[in-house]
Design goal:
- The chain contains eleven helices and five strands; from the N terminus they run αααααβαβαβαβααβα.
- The chain is of the alpha/beta class and 275 residues long.
- The chain has a five-stranded parallel beta sheet, with helices on both faces.
């Protein structure tokens, strides 16, 4: 991770410190460990575990255990304040004071089928902003909905607003596009979004469920042999055509495979900051 990106992400986390202090009445709240882990990850990936930056932040003592509730609250606030100071010191030492470490957030469009990936999308709607990106997805109230438009075209209208299109492919092909562009008929809404992303020269990151990815090869091999088979994992053979469409592009045709949402989130953590 480059230093400028790391500092911008650390600044985003620094903005959340007042909320951490407001949780002093419940020092066992899980938000502080999550905050700590994310700060350590950014520092580790940028400067390394042997760095002064890592030692300064990681060397802060654990939260003190005290008896009275008032003392617990004060200890929690003091502990968060120490972490806040360490974070500010790291930012300032790299000649970018906390007040000026501001980058325009890159915008990420989250593309996938919806009904079968509700839980996955919910996880990613939390992860992507935590990585320092602005999120565009149909679940957000700010999702652009221009009047006198078909709902499918509304989805397409939002794609040019993004910098990165994150595509998640699982077992379902999804609803067919029924908007105003006749050239997109027969394709899914998600496929139509990808075509817009390519046309608008947006970066695309693709992630495919491992079972579907592996089954694609088996299906293609049998088709070459003249064996007509029904896929087991994929609910529609057109899913394989969609994956092949991505794979045969001249750019952004790298496809990561994931077993579950835990692996998917780790892949996204590693890949998005490189974009």
């Amino acid at each position: 991770m480059n230093i400028l990106t790391a500092l911008a992400l650390l600044k985003n986390l620094l903005d959340g410190v007042p909320r951490l202090k407001s949780l002093a009445s419940n020092p066992k709240n899980e938000e502080l460990p999550t905050f700590d882990n994310e700060v350590r990850r950014i520092i580790r990936e940028t400067w390394g575990v042997g760095s002064i930056e890592y030692a300064r932040y990681n060397g802060i003592f654990r939260l003190m255990r005290v008896e009275s509730q008032a003392d617990k609250e004060q200890a929690y606030i003091d502990h968060v304040s120490r972490r806040e100071k360490a974070l500010k010191d790291i930012i300032q030492e790299h000649d970018l004071p906390a007040k000026v470490v501001v980058l325009d957030k890159k915008k990420v469009f989250l593309g996938s089928t919806s009904n079968d990936l509700k839980d996955v999308r919910a996880e990613l709607r939390e992860l992507i902003p935590a990585l320092g990106f602005a999120l565009i997805c149909f679940e957000n109230p700010s999702f652009k909905k221009l009047p006198r438009k078909h709902a499918h075209d509304m989805c397409l209208d939002n794609v040019p607003d993004c910098d990165i299109y994150v595509l998640i492919i699982d077992e379902r092909f999804g609803e067919e596009y029924a908007g105003s562009d006749p050239n997109l008929r027969g394709k899914s809404i998600t496929w139509a979004e990808v075509e817009v992303a390519l046309r608008e020269n947006r970066a695309i990151c693709t992630f495919v469920r491992k079972e579907v990815w592996n089954e694609k090869s088996t299906y293609a091999w049998n088709m070459k042999k003249g064996n007509e088979i029904e896929p087991f994992f994929a609910k529609d053979k057109r899913v394989f055509q969609f994956i092949e469409y991505i794979a045969t592009q001249t750019k952004d045709n790298w496809i990561d495979q994931f077993q579950d949402v835990v692996e998917l989130k780790e892949l996204i953590r590693k890949r998005l900051p490189q974009m």
